[in-house]
Design a protein that fits this description.
Helix content: 40-55%
CATH topology of the largest domain: Spore Coat Polysaccharide Biosynthesis Protein SpsA, Chain A
Oligomer: single chain
CATH class of the largest domain: Alpha Beta
CATH superfamily of the largest domain: Spore Coat Polysaccharide Biosynthesis Protein SpsA, Chain A
Low-confidence stretches: none
Length: 348
């Protein structure tokens, strides 16, 4: 993809972000309770999909191999008007009638597509499994067991792997707990930085009915959701890696946001939002720790912007924003490193 084309995509992305506000709700979208007289499965596996056909079949098969039957498990793909393949045909071929399919009338954006997924879900528990991620055998049995053993929990989650395009394990999630059970001091922990990824998380539908869906930003919307939820409900956790979060090279929202710098703006906005969910006497400390956490992450990923996207100017800008967010040895080192790389035109 040419640099000019990438620049055009980033411009379009920014236009969407600032002027098409309907795609990014300013407040949590309402999730309406279901009628009491309808039959409901225990679990809804809702699969938002947009131009991820390369990975979607694996995602679907990872669910089908754990199928609990239609009376207990709803499986549905919600397609945000993909253009890379005939998603309906892919779903029909893979599911052979077992998987429901819904296509948006027009492209709504990821947050509105998540909202549609949740409203279409009929189960007591909802798993938003993005179409490029997948789960391992035993995931749903462990989730069901967690909710059964800890009925007070609003969320059940597992440990997970980050994987690449070829399913190679890159690295595990940050340590959360060594013990199975309710996570202790979880609100303060999750408010200081992202510790979860969507494929590892299953939420009671009643939580979304009470708190609403994802809103505010396109990057970091799940972090805000987990903090908001942790302020109201316990999280049950098992330290077994049964979910897989895809890190890939497709030109998706995340990669475009890294190239435009919008990701840092979104996270800073989210930091301010989550302050409202925290005890007043702990807000300053938690925000300070969150800034350090995210500053180190963005300093380190400035290398990715330099090499993967071949964009030294944006790499320097990101390293500068990371340093401004929190001045520490790591952010200083990467800011200096990006300047030196550009100066000597390292691997450009």
């Amino acid at each position: 993809m040419s640099k000019a084309f990438k620049t055009g995509l980033i411009t379009i992305l920014n236009f969407v972000y600032y002027f098409m506000s309907d795609r990014i709700p300013s407040s949590p979208p309402v999730i309406k309770p279901l009628p009491e007289n309808i039959g409901r499965p225990l679990l809804s596996v809702m699969i938002p999909a947009y131009n991820c056909s390369k990975f979607l079949r694996q995602c679907l098969n990872s669910v089908l191999q754990q199928d609990m039957g239609s009376a207990k498990m709803q499986i549905q793909v919600v397609d945000d008007c993909s253009t890379d393949t005939n998603v309906q045909l892919l779903v029909e071929e893979t599911g052979k009638g077992r998987i429901e399919y819904f296509r948006q009338e027009k492209n709504r954006g990821s947050l509105r597509n998540f909202e549609t997924c949740i409203n279409l879900a009929k189960g007591k528990y909802i798993h938003l499994l993005h179409g490029d991620d997948f789960v391992d055998d035993g995931f749903y049995k462990e989730i069901e067991s967690l909710f059964r053993d800890y009925p007070e929990a609003g969320v059940a989650c597992t440990a997970f792997w980050y994987v690449d395009d070829n399913n190679k394990f890159l690295y595990p999630n940050d340590k959360i707990s060594n013990e199975r059970g309710i996570l202790n001091n979880w609100l303060e922990t999750i408010a200081q930085g992202q510790k979860l990824q969507p494929p590892a998380v299953v939420v009671k539908r009643e939580v979304y009915e009470k708190l609403g869906s994802f809103f505010g930003v396109h990057y970091g919307e799940d972090w805000e959701m987990w903090v908001r939820t942790a302020a109201h409900y316990p999280f049950a956790f098992i330290p077994v890696k049964l979910a897989n979060y895809r890190v890939h090279d497709n030109e998706n929202i995340t990669s475009l946001y890294f190239q435009s710098g919008q990701h840092i703006k979104d996270v800073l906005k989210t930091m301010d939002t989550v302050q409202n969910y925290l005890p007043e006497n702990k807000r300053k400390k938690i925000k300070r720790n969150a800034k350090k956490h995210w500053s180190v992450y963005y300093a380190r990923t400035s290398d990715m912007v330099y090499h993967k996207y071949h964009n030294p100017n944006q790499a320097i800008a990101q390293a500068r924003l990371a340093f401004d967010m929190n001045k520490n040895l790591t952010t200083f080192f990467f800011l200096f490193k990006m300047h030196i790389k550009k100066l000597i035109r390292y691997k450009l």
